[in-house]
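lol so apparently i was supposed to do this last week
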Amino acid sequence: MSSAAHQAKSSLTPDVVIIGGGVAGGALAVALARQNIRALVLEKTLEHQDRVRGEFMPPWGVEEAKKLGLFDVLLGAGGHFTKRNIPYGEDMSAQEAEARAIPLGKILPDIEGAMTFGHPQICGALNQAAVAAGATMLRGAGDLAVSPGRDPKVAFTHEGHRYEACPRLVVGADGRGSWTARQIGADVKFDPSHHLLSGLLIDGVHEWPEEDQSIGVEGDITFYVFPQGEGRIRLYACYGLDQRGRFSGPDNAQRFLDAFRLKSLPHADALSAGRPIGPCHGYPNGDTWIDTPVVPGVVLVGDAAGHNDPTIGQGLSISLRDSRHVVEALTSNADWTEDIFAPYVEERRERMRRLRFVAQLFSVLRVEFTDDARMRRRRALKRIGAEPRLALPFLATQKGPFSVPPETFEQKTWDQLLN
Ligand SMILES: Cc1cc2nc3c(=O)[nH]c(=O)nc-3n(C[C@H](O)[C@H](O)[C@H](O)COP(=O)(O)OP(=O)(O)OC[C@H]3O[C@@H](n4cnc5c(N)ncnc54)[C@H](O)[C@@H]3O)c2cc1C
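anyway here it is w/ flavin-adenine dinucleotide bound
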């Protein structure tokens, strides 16, 4: 870098510094830059890698992407629609599961279905779109020090030089275990783990219908099959805490694939013979949350503000909605005090409470594998058949957490389904 450029960078005055250029940070940077708000994105990595993250976005997330003007970016980066969710699994025959398929393209008006894609590709595409819209992106930024307050500051190292940025606002979008959240002393609450969740991306599976996804239970796993088009499929599996080492160590990808040799799953042999094209990583499930992800000068978005249990696949949609809130607050207020984020804080708190309720319900109902749990699942299926209202918590994960009545997320629903 020339010394003039270095000089110019060593004291930086963007409007907003965004820490983390993942889905939340990338989406926010595009939307801000398009509103002529000068954004500087500080991203730790030099290149986005497959870390086994979200690659499925339900219809309400696709709607959020449209509202943010990012739909074309997602499509251009390989966004692929799934149109049916088929509940294959031990509870019913394949024919019955197909008859009960949820038509994902009919959940919300003008939303073609759920969307799947590669997480690193989407982050990369959002970063490119942000730069094209006028944002500045520095990759390989490290040693961050955030000073909150009415005149916030971010010190960081880039390419061996130390800089200080003095923006009007700092946004922490640095994901799980956020460093920004720690630096501002955020009080992170968390659920105890209920189970583990692992994932693997495979290629070369042309037998599986590209517009069908499946989530189901057989034996001692809950399986997820999310096609991405052209024979690529993201697989996830949930399993008990007592099987912690099940998909770790050497040959873990093969053991993971072998777990998909399931009687209830069409094309199981083809899935198990898929070619791994990414790592096989696992994580404990569970939510984390921060009641007030805002302090003077700093706001947190996406996983940095607390993440929903990935078991129900909401994190990407949550991140997009968070980013939309921040853009709306900044574009409709001249003074960027912490008060302008009050609607965001209030909406997010309730949104995450609702999704936490569904994740816990889903975990007990669909990620337990004892005989009692199996009986409970069959009983719940019958109860939903008799009283469709009991399916509303699950509809909320497709249609959005505020699309169903608030009483959906009360103890009564839990008792009616599970007890
Ligand atoms: C196993 C698993 C499966 C999941 N499945 C789904 C799913 O199917 N659907 C769904 O919607 N969600 C799913 N999720 C959740 C989803 O991946 C996240 O909610 C989403 O990626 C959050 O986006 P983010 O931008 O907040 O965080 P991230 O995607 O984690 O991005 C954070 C960015 O910040 C950068 N960063 C981190 N620390 C620093 C630092 N100190 N300085 C600068 N940059 C930094 C990182 O390099 C990264 O680029 C899943 C999560 C897991 C773990």
